[in-house]
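Q: Convert this sequence to structure tokens.
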Amino acid sequence: MGGLILAIDQSTQGTKALLFEEDGSLLTKTSHPHTQYVDERGWVEHDAEEVLRNVCSCVAAVMADAGATAEDIAAFGISNQRETCLAWDRTTGRPLAHAIVWQYGRAAALCDELEEAHPGAVEFVQGRSGLALSPYFSAAKMSWMLKNVPAVAEAAKAGTLCFGTIDSWLAYSLCEGHPFVTEPSNATRTQLLNLETAQWDEGLLDLFGIPRAALPKVLPSDALFGVSDFNGTLSNPIPLHAMLGDSQAALAAQDCLKPGQVKATYGTGSSVMLMAGDAPIRNTHGLVSSIAWSLEGKLSYVLEGNLNYTGAVVTWLKDRVHMIQSPDELEGLIREANPNDRSYFVPAFTGLGAPWWDSAATGMLTGVTTLTGRAEIAKACTECIPYQIADVLDALRADTGLALEALRADGGVTKNACLMQFQADMAKASVEVSKLAELSAAGAAFVAGRAADLWTTNAIHERYGHETYMPQMADAMRKSKRAGWQAALRQACCHS
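A:
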């Protein structure tokens, strides 16, 4: 057996394939974007078959670049965008519709109807799943498909329906024998898994109207899920020995394995996640309790705040507003902007996530004066990211009573030094930015490598260090800026 680990990171914007060496170093990587299908209502979907093709082409590219063969690979792991879900037919193996992307709340009305028709539904869902009743999670999306996509309803009636998150789709489509499987870090985010037992919950299935037979088997996160040659890409099949939701994968890669350690992943949206340990922490400040993973036969839990739009704000500035041509321009614009400008931007494009949970809120640029220009607007749009993260950290502090003086950070926008310094100032915590950008993939590789007996420690984390930003802003200034942000939030949430 070889000494390389292959990691697949299937994210909201695209797919990456990476090869890690036995000493934990990154050998090579490649990526392919996939199409974002956006209709006139702002609903976003992905073509699951395009995603599958991209996975295989990425694997072919990294193997060719490294001059590696299947015999060189000890195992592979998958990290994936969470909550995005799709339906496919067990007989044909073909999707019945495009996958519904995690951010988009087309099932908001369905959640409202459930709440009205079933008094106590909010408390019931929270108690069983650890999650707020919200269209953000997969259960409402699946229920919406059953009611609105005829092919899905027909497959359910025929007993051939498969509902799954992206991990289940890839395992089913890539592995020999088409295993229909998932694992706790993804299954918990469907809102159909019992937080305590890590099994599908009959009460939640009944509430959302999801047939048990349409859901995959829940295995440990480091199980041997199957073997794959990536649909003929490799000469021989290799074992799939890890699947993790991308945020939990980043938590593992950051080596946040002890209770009280916190990381923030800055992707399209953001996950601020605290390792809770071997028992869930029930939240009271707008966060959610989830399962981190099941590794070596042991369940671990997290307390988490999810933000819909962080890195996506940068994409919006570039692709929709055409204010910048590249994210690299933002650091210069922040330095150029008038430091006394009072503009704030609230990125509630499809409502607000944690800790506010206001699906009716809309985006808002406020505090604009005649002196506000391009640089100031870009700065306001960028600074909304650290403001949101700081709000979630405050909620974590309130739920746990912990000081939380350090935040481990990863993701694309962490390359922006101005933004990370502002994050340290607003969070009143040190921010430790990983020197390896691909943390979700690294987490999947770490778990796969350990399951394949290649590593006993977190070799990738040990190989790459952090750059640390310490709080520098005066307390009075920090409080003033946070108060201005809170005022902007109240305006965005005023939609009567």
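The mean pLDDT is 92.
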